[in-house]
């Protein structure tokens, strides 16, 4: 029995148990309703995060940028009159600016509504210095629903955080985004010279990862596959 038929059977039995009359209306598909509610809720939450990030970029980040420019133009004696070092003031402002910029990017990718390849590139940029990243992203990509991009970035973040928490650096981390026949495919693979470290082994079976993959399936009507080997983990998402 498929899951849809099973949900319908359960709903019908519950309706009868509550004294319902089968003639009243058409049976409601709980699975379809759950998907609609999940899509709406996720889009709603994502939109709130986008608004917060835009407010941060257009508000406090702009103010800090203006303050930094002001300090650059003020003469050093004027700063020292207040007991502060000119260079240390600039360094502190620069630190605040970068911290806020990173925060806004974590809340919402600046490319969430523009381009999936650009969103992936932007997200991976801070990791390039410490990892052997091999990235294959198609230059042209049609506009994706924001919930697709958000889930893919969340999946990528889960894997990279697990990689960062492991003591051993992966031999290779491969990310690709391609069209395969009539479908789109996102591939993420982590390879180690020896056995998978514990954080990666636990991640593959975690509730968070399972939920993310199921959420992607529901939102995109796509499929997800995970292959775990002794030295590698591979995820392939198609839609």
Q: Which properties best describe this structure?
A:
globular; alpha+beta
How would you portray this structure in words?
The radius of gyration is 24 Å and the shape is globular. The chain contains 9 helices and 5 strands. The chain has a 5-stranded mixed β-sheet, with helices on one face. β2 and β3 form a beta hairpin. The chain has helices at residues 3-17, 30-58, 60-73, 76-80, 86-107, 116-124, 146-165, 198-203, 207-220, and strands at 133-137, 172-180, 183-191, 223-228, 232-238. By secondary structure, the chain is α+β, with helices and mostly antiparallel strands. α7 runs antiparallel to α9. The model is unreliable at 1-25 (pLDDT under 50). The protein is 56% helix and 15% strand.
Tell me the major beta sheet: 5 strands, mixed
Give me the count of strands. 5
What would the average pLDDT be, to the nearest integer?
Answer: 82
Helicity, in percent? 55-70%
Taken from the alpha-carbon principal axes, the silhouette is globular
Topology as a string of helices (H) and strands (E): HHHHHHEHEEHHEE
Count of DSSP-assigned helices: 9
Q: Measured on Cα atoms, how large is the radius of gyration?
A: 24 Å
Q: Order of strands in the sheet with the most strands?
A: 1-2-3-5-4
N-to-C CA distance? 24 Å
Class derived from helix and strand content = alpha+beta
Name the poorly predicted regions: 1-25
Report strand %: 15-25%
């Amino acid at each position: 029995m498929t899951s849809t038929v099973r949900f319908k059977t359960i709903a019908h039995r519950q309706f009868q148990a509550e004294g319902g009359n089968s003639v009243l209306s058409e049976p409601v598909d709980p699975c379809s309703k759950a998907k609609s509610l999940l899509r709406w809720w996720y889009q709603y939450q994502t939109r709130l995060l986008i608004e917060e990030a835009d407010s941060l970029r257009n508000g406090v980040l702009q103010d800090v940028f203006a303050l930094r420019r002001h300090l650059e133009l003020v003469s050093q004696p004027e700063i020292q009159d207040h007991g502060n070092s000119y260079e240390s003031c600039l360094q502190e402002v620069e630190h605040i600016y970068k911290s806020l910029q990173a925060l806004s990017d974590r809340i919402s990718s600046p490319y969430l509504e523009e381009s999936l390849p650009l969103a992936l590139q932007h997200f991976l940029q801070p990791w390039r210095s410490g990892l052997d990243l091999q990235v294959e992203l198609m230059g042209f990509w049609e506009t994706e629903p924001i919930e697709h991009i958000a889930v893919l970035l969340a999946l990528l973040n889960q894997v990279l955080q697990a990689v960062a928490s492991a003591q051993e650096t992966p031999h290779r981390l491969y990310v690709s985004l391609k069209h395969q026949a009539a479908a789109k495919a996102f591939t993420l693979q982590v390879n180690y010279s020896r056995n998978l470290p514990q954080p990666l082994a636990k991640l593959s079976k975690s509730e968070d990862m399972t939920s993310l993959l199921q959420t992607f399936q529901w939102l995109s009507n796509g499929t997800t596959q995970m292959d775990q080997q002794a030295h590698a983990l591979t995820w392939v998402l198609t839609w």
